[in-house]
Specification:
The complex is a heterodimer of chains A (165) and B (426).
Chain A (H helix, E strand, L loop, with lengths): L1 H5 L15 H5 L12 E5 L2 H11 L7 E5 L6 E3 L4 E2 L1 H5 L4 E6 L5 H14 L2 E6 L8 H6 L5 E4 L5 H8 L3
Parallel strand pairs in A: 1-2, 1-5, 5-6, 6-7
Antiparallel strand pairs in A: 2-3, 3-4
Chain B lengths: L3 H8 L6 H6 L4 E5 L11 E5 L2 E7 L5 E5 L13 E3 L2 E3 L6 E2 L5 E3 L17 E2 L1 E4 L2 E4 L23 E8 L3 H9 L4 H4 L14 H8 L4 E7 L2 E9 L4 E10 L3 E3 L8 E10 L2 E9 L7 H8 L26 H6 L9 H11 L16 H18 L9 H4 L4 E6 L4 H5 L15
Antiparallel strand pairs in B: 1-11, 2-3, 3-4, 4-9, 5-6, 6-7, 7-8, 10-11, 12-18, 13-14, 14-15, 15-16, 15-19, 16-17, 17-18
The chains are: A alpha/beta (165), B alpha+beta (426).
Bound molecules: FE2/S2 (inorganic) cluster (FES) and fe (ii) ion (FE2).
Chain lengths: 165, 426
């Protein structure tokens, strides 16, 4: 019976997935999921800032919204105050960068390198409807682990909602 | 996370549901041709999109896909006698042709025209390659017959299998879009599997375990590009197309056949994972087909009812020793079962209000958004994409490109299927 030693064999209702009804299979312990991604959204140009401001106006758990300009690293909050990039990144684990025109490449690099060093997940939205290639893509590519190309304006809100920002 | 009403919208595909309406705008694979192997062979039950149907092949070789239940008193036509141009109910002998039209009602007087008014619901079904595709939607909106490359290549170039997956179709589809699980879950397979091994791309895969992703919105759906470092100044790209609503293709490796899937809802808690492998320029070899039948590549070894031999009744033949040795990452053998075991473990319809997505799930997020928008638009009378021949002439691609090329530009026509054009692969 060597097979029985090696293989897992379901022995009763509690260990056999098959024995579960759909209701049982759907059972999940009901405890609230913390929205702990601490997402920071950064607009990389003026047009992107418009998209980011619109998203910022909705209600979020912990997401915060900024714009940035060359040469970085100072970020500007949507309400207008200036903050240091390093301070913002301190308790962050996801940075979403939004670009339309591909401007401010130096600032992108500063953010990207800083996120890389701290192990912060980076995502990029290239909001260039209809265009698959361009400055914005090339500028973000080295620094965004995942890119949406071209992203639609409502992708930012979808992404933030889906990740419980 | 997804709101419960959106989860419902995307997962329910029965008649009259928005996603069900969307699916009913596409030809879907419903049977392997081998299930109706000859004229007047036994009829076969087909459950698709929560509808119960019977498929049969009549004396003249015509295919029929009709309502499972006899119009007289509701007996399942699975018990029927398939004879002389139609399927006859064994209870009182009513007989139907492939269009569902009653052609004989023996209890009625000889020259009665009673028959003319009895017709079972029926759907068109066509054979393409080794698969039968059916269209369950409004006849007025019927799209052209399917033109997926796998089903336009010469005979002998394609092999298709199907396997029962005991969970909602969307869970299965999302696995096909979610390229970020491949390095983990399937990491053990690419070097040993006879249908993957030996390709140069495998080296790039192993050297760079943290791929970057680009999700590109294109006409028929999405292109998901996974990018790894290649030689100096170059990236190795693996490009997976998803075509609405339920078609995905895996990027090729070397000269191996290229494969893909359809994820077809049976009902809301089950689906068929359809798997094809084809080669655009040559016949599949006997060895390749034997490997596919044995469950290598992305196929599975199944019983006669197309249920995988490793299934939830036997804990998918979990092998903890292989898991410990790292031979398989999850302890389950074979890519197909590695995927389906985990997807079935999420429950028949996973509660997406409880998930905790991360940024690298952006492909899944985007696909859900496109499905929702397509279903909602159809309710407003806007026809979907993915059912036109140009959407279906698509290929997956594996390619090395200079670091500053957009992968869509870089692959150019390589993702467009054309007869006897070699596929672009590394
Ligand atoms: S790690 Fe992805 S589902 Fe558990
Ligand atoms: Fe997989």
């Amino acid at each position: 019976m060597a097979g029985f030693v090696k293989l897992s064999v379901p022995v009763g209702p509690s260990s056999c997935a098959r024995a579960a009804t759909s209701e049982e299979a759907a059972f999940r312990i009901d405890h609230p999921l913390a929205s702990a991604r601490n997402t920071r959204v950064v607009a990389l140009d003026e047009v992107a800032a418009g998209i980011v401001r619109e998203a910022a106006a909705l209600e979020w758990g912990q997401a915060r919204f900024f714009t940035v300009r060359d040469p970085g690293p100072t970020l500007v909050e949507v309400e207008g105050g200036e903050v240091a990039l390093t301070g913002v990144l301190e308790d962050t684990n996801t940075v979403v960068m939004v670009s339309v025109t591909g401007e401010n490449a130096d600032a992108v690099a500063v953010i990207g390198v800083e996120c890389g060093a701290r192990g912060i997940m980076t995502a990029g939205l290239v909001v260039t409807p209809g265009a698959l290639a361009g400055e914005a893509l090339l500028q973000l590519r080295p620094y965004a682990r995942i890119l949406l190309v071209p992203a639609e304006p409502d992708d930012l809100v979808e992404l933030l909602k889906a990740t419980r920002a | 996370m997804l709101r419960p009403e959106i989860n419902d919208l995307l997962c329910r595909t029965g008649p009259g549901t928005p996603m069900g309406d969307l699916f009913r705008r596409y030809w879907q694979p419903v049977l392997l041709a081998e299930e109706l192997p000859e004229n007047d062979c036994p009829p076969v039950r087909v459950k698709v999109l929560s509808e119960r149907l019977i498929a049969f092949r009549d004396t003249d070789g015509r295919y029929g896909l009709i309502d499972e239940f006899c119009a007289h008193r509701g007996v399942s036509m699975w018990f029927g006698r398939n004879e002389q141009g139609g399927l006859r109910c064994p209870y009182h002998g009513w007989k139907y042709d492939v269009t569902g039209q009653a052609v004989e009602v023996p209890s009625e007087p000889e020259n009665s025209n009673f028959c003319a008014n009895v017709k079972l619901k029926s759907y068109p079904m066509v054979k393409r390659g080794d698969v039968l595709f059916a269209y369950l939607g409004d006849p007025a909106a019927q799209p052209p017959e399917p033109e997926w490359e796998a089903y336009t290549v010469p005979e002998g170039h394609v092999f298709t299998s199907k396997r029962l997956q005991e969970c909602n179709w969307l869970q299965a589809l999302e696995g096909g879009i979610d390229s970020s699980h491949v390095t983990f879950l399937h990491g053990g397979n690419i070097d040993t599997d006879p249908l993957f091994k030996g390709s140069k791309g495998n080296l790039y895969n192993k050297r760079d375990l943290k791929p970057y992703f680009e999700v590109v919105d294109y006409e028929g759906g999405l292109l998901i590009g996974a990018r790894r470092n290649a030689e100096e100044g170059h990236y190795y790209w693996r490009v997976t197309p998803w075509v609405l609503p339920n078609f995905t293709m895996v990027p090729p490796r070397g000269d191996h056949p290229v494969h893909g899937h359809f994820w077809v809802p049976i009902d809301d808690g089950n689906c068929w994972a359809w798997t094809f492998d084809y080669h655009p320029t040559r016949k599949l070899t006997e060895d390749e087909i034997a490997a596919m039948r044995a469950g290598f590549g992305v196929h599975s070894a199944n019983d006669e009812a197309y249920r995988p031999l490793a299934n939830k009744d036997n804990d998918y033949l979990m092998d903890r020793e292989a898991q410990r040795r790292g031979e398989t990452y999850s302890g389950i053998a074979g890519i197909a079962l590695q995927d389906s075991s985990l997807q079935e473990s999420m429950g028949p319809v996973v509660d997406r209000t409880k998930e905790r997505l991360v940024a690298t799930d952006a492909g899944i997020i985007k696909a859900r958004q496109k499905l929702r928008k397509a279903a909602e638009a159809l309710q407003q009378g806007v026809e979907p994409v993915g059912n036109r021949p140009q959407d279906q002439r698509v290929r997956s691609v594996a390619i090395v490109l200079p670091a500053d090329r957009s992968f869509v530009d870089g692959i150019g026509d390589a993702m467009i299927a054309e007869p006897s054009k070699p596929h672009t692969t590394v």
